[in-house]
């Protein structure tokens, strides 16, 4: 009886071993799949902001054949046709996908496709030769995922730039390529160019590049008494003295301002106890780094902003622990910068209670010392940093 049990057990072990050796998991293989462009939707050759919400194109594709029955995830990619290594694709992450067990397609608007080609490192404002394809991914772990791609579909299209419009403030005799810039607030804006810069005494004009940001054949604006002019009547604008300036231009009304300021600084209730919200603790400008820097003692949990103003004379030196400041009276405020939704970013904001920056810590009447750095060298991309000392 014991021998029968032993023999039966041995047989089961042999059968089990044989079964394990011959039950391999299904193997995936790249058998491809086809991408097609819906011919009922005619893609525009030129994209414009006016047609941003129109449909650019609709693309549909087969289920990717990975060998055994599988479920993949899909992403549409755009890349430059000349990118033969396919190393710089841009992927669409919007809401235009419609993927079901029986169909797979994506619909892109003009704005969405324009965003994709603008994100390519080879973007240019003239006609581009781009390819569209679908990326199929099987598996959730990027290291082990099985990936294959559809055939590419070629598209020739001219997009519109998402860069901010710029102008150069050019001293007569200098090249526009190396002169300071002013920028508008939005890609299609032409009414609110601005920028902070150091200008030396002399005569200047505004140079507007072409749509490709090339200054080879610019539109040149001169002016007088705050009014811009072009063409044969163009006259240079005189800057009387070296210094820091806030320059603004409005091409909708053909006007400009060039406002000199003495310093940028920190102001607000975080800078001193008692009264004196308007009093500014000045920073020092470094022409080499193009930064405004200084040490500022800030009351914990209190608010502040940055201000530029024009003033002369000595700093006011209050009793300790308050720090020397440029007075809020007998000075001309030029601009006020407050925070935005982007960390450490600033924009012009003179509205009380809006854009305030809060000094770190709990408002208990004590102070912390900070090295404050203000970078205004990139128009419309103003930033600040605070390093606790």
In short:
By secondary structure, the protein is mostly beta strands.
Q: Count of helical segments?
A: 2
Low-confidence stretches: 1-23
How much is the average pLDDT? 89
Morphology:
flat
Radius of gyration: 32 Å
- The assigned structural class equals mainly beta
Helices and strands, in order, run as HEEEEEEHEEEEEEEEEEEEEEEEEEEEEE
Q: Number of DSSP strands?
A: 28
Largest sheet, strands/sense/barrel? 10 strands, antiparallel
* Helical coverage, percent range: under 10%
* Terminal Cα span: 88 Å
Q: Please state roughly what percent of the residues sit in beta strands, choosing from under 5%, 5-15%, 15-25%, 25-35%, 35-45% or over 45%.
A: 35-45%
Explain the overall architecture.
The protein is mainly β and 389 residues long. Helix content is 8%, strand content 40%. The protein is built from two helices and 28 strands. It has helices at residues 2-22, 110-118, and strands spanning 35-37, 55-61, 73-80, 90-91, 97-99, 104-109, 128-138, 146-149, 153-157, 166-171, 181-183, 193-199, 202-208, 219-224, 227-229, 237-239, 243-250, 255-261, 263-267, 280-282, 284-286, 291-299, 303-310, 332-339, 345-348, 357-358, 367-375, 382-388. Strands 19, 20, 21, 22, 23, 24, 25, 26, 27 and 28 form a ten-stranded antiparallel β-sheet that branches. Strands 10, 11, 13, 14, 15 and 16 form a six-stranded antiparallel β-sheet that branches. Strand 24 and strand 25 (345-348) form a beta hairpin. The longest helix is centred in the N-terminal third of the chain and has 21 residues, at 2-22. It is flat and about 80 Å long. The termini are far apart. Residues 1-23 have low confidence and may be disordered.
């Amino acid at each position: 009886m014991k021998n029968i049990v032993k023999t039966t057990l041995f047989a089961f072990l042999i059968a089990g071993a044989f079964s394990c050796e011959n039950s391999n998991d299904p193997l995936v293989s790249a058998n491809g799949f086809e991408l097609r462009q819906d011919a009922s939707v005619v893609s525009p050759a030129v994209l414009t902001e006016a047609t941003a919400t129109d449909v650019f194109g609709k693309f549909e594709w087969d289920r990717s054949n990975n060998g055994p029955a599988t479920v993949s995830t899909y992403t549409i990619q755009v890349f430059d046709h000349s990118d033969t290594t396919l190393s710089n694709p841009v992927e669409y992450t919007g809401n235009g996908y419609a993927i079901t067990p029986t169909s797979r397609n994506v619909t892109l608007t003009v704005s969405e496709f324009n965003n994709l080609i603008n994100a390519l490192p080879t973007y240019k404002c003239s006609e581009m030769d781009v390819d569209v394809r679908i990326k199929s991914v099987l598996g959730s772990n990027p290291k082990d995922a099985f990936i294959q791609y559809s055939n590419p579909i070629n598209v020739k299209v001219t997009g519109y730039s998402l860069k901010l419009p710029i102008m150069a403030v050019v001293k007569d005799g200098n090249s526009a390529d190396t002169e300071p810039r002013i920028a508008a607030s939005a890609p299609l804006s032409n009414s609110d160019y601005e920028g902070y810069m150091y200008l030396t005494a002399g005569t200047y004009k505004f140079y507007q590049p072409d749509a490709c940001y090339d200054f080879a054949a610019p539109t040149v604006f001169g002016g007088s008494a705050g009014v811009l002019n072009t063409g044969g009547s163009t006259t240079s604008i005189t800057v009387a003295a070296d210094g820091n300036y806030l320059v603004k231009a409005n091409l909708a009304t053909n006007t400009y301002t060039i406002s000199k300021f003495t310093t940028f600084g920190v102001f607000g209730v975080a800078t001193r106890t008692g009264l004196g919200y308007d009093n500014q603790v000045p920073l020092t400008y470094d022409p080499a780094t193009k930064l405004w820097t200084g040490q500022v003692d800030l009351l914990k949990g209190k608010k502040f902003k940055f201000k530029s103003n024009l003033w002369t004379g000595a700093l006011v030196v209050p009793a300790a622990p308050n720090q020397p400041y440029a007075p809020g009276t007998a000075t001309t405020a030029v601009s006020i910068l407050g925070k935005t939704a982007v960390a450490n970013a600033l924009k012009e904001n003179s509205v009380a209670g809006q854009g305030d920056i809060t000094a770190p810590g709990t408002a208990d009447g004590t102070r912390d010392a900070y090295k404050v750095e203000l970078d205004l060298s990139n128009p419309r991309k103003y930033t600040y940093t605070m390093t606790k000392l």
